[in-house]
Amino acid sequence: MAPQQRRARSRRLAVVAAAVAASAVLASGPGFAAGAGVVRVADPPAPTPTVPAAASTLPAPAEPGPVVPVPGATPAASVTPEAPVVPETPVVPEAPVVPGASVAPGASVSPAETVTPSTPAVPPANSDPAFGAYLDYGALGVARIAELSEWLDGAELRVGHTYLPGDLWHNIEGPPGFLDVWADWRLEKDDRMLVLNVPMMERNEEGVSDEEVRGLLRQGAAGEFDHHFRALAERLVALKVPDTVIVLGWEMNGITYTHRCGPDPEAWKKYWNRIVSTMRSVPGQEFRFDFTPSRGKDAVPWTECYPGDDTVDILGMDSYDQPTGLSFDEQVKEPYGLQAHVDFAKSHGKPISYPEWGLFRNGDNPEYMRRMLAWMDEHKPLYNTVTDYCPHGVWQCGQNPRSSVVYRSLMSGRTDEPSTPPTSPVPSVEPSPPAPTTEPPVEPTVNCTPMDLGEWVEYWIGGKLCFRLDWWSGDE
């Protein structure tokens, strides 16, 4: 028995060593940024997926916004839209009339050059309000949907939300294996909705200069990047999720992302139109394209970036509780704020959405949570997904116990009709419930200690590696 025990121990140590070595090698790889792992100076950063994953932070104007973690082929940080700069006079410029995408002199003509008219945005068969949360960009995010539903007393989370990495074009095309688990979740029920944030440029969170961004936008407008988006569309159709909601080039009115609009709004709009036309040209597609700026003016008024009704199906807005000291009423009334967004969408005949929202610069703010939920119940967005990680969230983040109580009390058991009161509810003293768990509970393993090898390794091996501490005990 003694020799057998030694051999068994050697094998265990070899497995552990190999896993640790793999983790170290993976951790040294390039970062995967898609807009969710980095925090920027305006809105919270979007999660940055890595084709194993990592988070990144994005800078923003005025006050930084929350960062949403985005998956990446290489671990990366998430970016947060900058805080909008509020102009003195709330004016919402009319949306410019955008002609079809143009081609640079000498460039070959492709079908994508002509903008394909948008089909009317038709809600899914179940038209009841749909909601969910950003929980993680990979398989863990899918698993946590059921856990969050249980915490909400069986509330039906019909929306799954994730991000493509923005580090390399290869990953923007949809890395092999990355989207499969989300497609499987979507296909389990007909009324589910998959929301996918798609960067318009690689190196999306690398601080690329305005001059270089201007040149890249013009290349995109001339069709040089069409093939990447055609590949993504083909992959989504092959995965049987052709009705995915595409949040393309989100928070374009800020300064965080390489896919920002400010350096050349006209080129940006032509580039957006090319991408949409290219993806719509793929047989079998039923995509809906969501134009989602950050709330407020930010670096440029988001209406200056609007590409036209033919290529926009949904008008979204990322709206975090910021900047510091800004009340909810001010968030509604500020130039390019919540009311301007609703009015603009109505005038263009588009449904609205809130792909990212949550707490931020004003800490644990139950009044914001109550008012934002009431606002959505009143204006009925096609969908909303709260950003659920610190400092924005209410389930995985224990920093916001009072807001957590509000969210849970108003959303628990919700499956169809909204139950929150109309706007301007009377504030009330919130009970102090137990703080939500930062991480969903993990079943303990007897005499076994989980090793933290990083999300990248754990994603691909299907869970945490467990190391037994009692393997040396006993001399049988």
Brief summary of the model shown:
This protein has 476 residues and is α/β, with parallel strands linked by helices.
Helix content: 25-40%
What proportion strand?
Answer: 5-15%
Low-confidence stretches: 1-41, 52-127, 422-446, 468-476
The end-to-end distance, rounded to whole angstroms, is 6 Å
Which strand order does the major sheet show?
3-4-5-6-7-8-10-11
* Backbone CA Rg: 23 Å
Form type:
globular
Mean pLDDT: 76
Tally of individual helices: 12
Largest sheet: 8 strands, parallel, barrel
- Total E-strand runs: 13
Could you spell the SSE succession in H and E letters?
Answer: HEEEHEHHEHHEHEEEHHEHEHEHE
Which structural class should the secondary elements be placed in? Answer: alpha/beta
Q: How would you characterize this protein structure?
A:
The protein is α/β, with parallel strands linked by helices and 476 residues long. It has 12 helices and 13 strands. The chain has an 8-stranded parallel barrel, surrounded by 4 helices. Helix 2 links the parallel strand 3 (130-134) and strand 4 (159-163). Helix 6 packs parallel to helix 7. It is globular and about 50 Å long. The termini are close together. The model is unreliable at 1-41, 52-127, 422-446 and 468-476 (pLDDT under 50).
